């Protein structure tokens, strides 16, 4: 758990990790069994909605937020990432005291794979081991326009906080520094706007380069469909337990 | 002035109109005279910055916000529009009580042509007389994806408030209804994020279709350069008055 986080942020991250973790890291349940067991408890519309969402989902581009001091900002970025189909969401905490805020994510964390890291190094190691290029949004001489990035390749887009941007530690670990074009007098956008511009750019870039955005493998699609069923059905754990008992009994 | 607006919003809009109005509607001063008189009071860096901003400016796409109840949201949208080079900014007020908020626009209103309207009809009339297509962002059956819009043509992008979206009155006046793609479970973005997505989409669409974004005429460029000099030099009115007296004396 992040140190220094207030209760609101702790709740958000704990809840996100709890739901994310249900089927990851050696799942005790077969995704197909979960889906078959829970599907009768869902409306056809809900199942169709889940499939529509899955069709637009990707793990190829991950969102990383670092040092956000405002829970509301984290929620806003989660909401945008979820709405645009970016499934992996990394939160790097680090001694910051989070300030509570009104809810703005509408529970978007429920539909994302949320990963919480105590340090930029731990997050970067995880990403690099999985072949992600780390792209930090940062305005300096070494930065190139975001157009230069090919978002059809595994890419983690790192967004820093409003005051300090991405940390020096994270910049040192990043493969590239990019800027989002700004042609006006205003020198920065607020973090939820900057995240929206960066993620929408990545979304459009993927469409322009390859003609599609969602690109789950069959295994990812199955696992995520099971996770979404779990998160959609009230009392899903009890229903699954009863079904397990029957199949074993 | 909007009725029902609180002091914060009134201040914002009054300041914006005051600066916008300095050179519009039958300017008392020749723009070239303003520039020549004020240029010696500015650093070369400032003048270069003004020219760089002018190069990325357009009047072809206008931003319209309607019924925003939160001053902070208006400021955030202004900041995004300014940062992306969209010069014309319309605010439709209408009996809403504005809630004050922290400053987030960083004075972006200073660099925009801000127009304030009491009703959707008055705003739409102004836009239609000038040949703008009115495009409302609205999620319903009649809406098409925003990709369908050609933002190289004169277009006003209308953004409604978070609770109700664009008003029925404005929808009836709109030429098209568009949606910003959302592939997730989240059904809406917050207004500053929705505005960022819509305006960034328009910016990229212009680049993709015609290869450039900024498209001021020489007359617009000259007038806006004069306006930016006026807004950049402290005591500009006094300096201009002295210069006028000299030239007449």
Plain-language structure description:
The structure is a homodimer of 249-residue chains. Chain A has one domain (7-248): SPOUT methyltransferase, trefoil knot domain (Alpha/beta knot), CATH 3.40.1280.10. Chain A has 249 residues and is an alpha/beta fold. Helix content of chain A is 45%, strand content 13%. The model of chain A is unreliable at 1-5, 22-27 and 97-105 (pLDDT under 50). Chain A contains 9 helices and 7 strands, in the order αααβαββαβββαβααα. In chain A, α4 runs parallel beside α7 (191-210). In chain A, strands 3-2-1-6-4-7-5 form a 7-stranded parallel β-sheet, sandwiched between helices. At the A-B interface, α3, α4 and α7 of A face α3, α4 and α7 of B.
Question: In a nutshell, what does this entry contain?
Answer:
By secondary structure, chain A is α/β, with parallel strands linked by helices. Chain A is built from 9 helices and 7 strands.
């Amino acid at each position: 758990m992040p140190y220094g986080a207030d209760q609101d942020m702790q709740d958000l991250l704990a809840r996100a990790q709890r739901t994310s973790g249900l089927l990851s890291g050696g799942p005790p349940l077969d995704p197909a069994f979960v889906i078959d067991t829970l599907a009768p408890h869902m409306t056809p519309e809900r199942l169709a909605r889940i499939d529509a969402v899955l069709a637009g989902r990707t793990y190829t581009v991950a969102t990383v937020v670092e040092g956000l001091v405002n829970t509301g900002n984290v929620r806003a970025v989660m909401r945008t990432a979820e709405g645009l189909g970016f499934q992996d969401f990394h939160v790097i905490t680090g001694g910051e005291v989070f300030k509570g805020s009104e809810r703005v994510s509408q529970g978007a964390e429920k539909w994302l794979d949320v990963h919480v890291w105590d340090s930029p190094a731990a997050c970067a190691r995880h990403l690099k081991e999985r072949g992600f290029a780390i792209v930090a949004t940062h305005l300096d001489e070494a930065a190139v326009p975001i157009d230069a990035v090919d978002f059809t390749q595994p890419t983690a887009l790192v967004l820093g906080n409003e005051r300090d941007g991405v940390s020096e530690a994270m910049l040192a670990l990043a493969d590239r520094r990019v800027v989002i074009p700004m042609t006006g007098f205003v020198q920065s956008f607020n973090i939820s706007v900057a995240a929206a511009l960066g993620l929408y750019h990545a979304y459009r870039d993927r469409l322009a380069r390859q003609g599609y955005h969602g690109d789950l493998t069959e295994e990812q699609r199955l696992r995520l469909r099971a996770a979404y069923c779990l998160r959609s059905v009230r009392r899903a754990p009890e229903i699954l337990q009863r079904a397990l008992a029957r199949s074993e009994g």
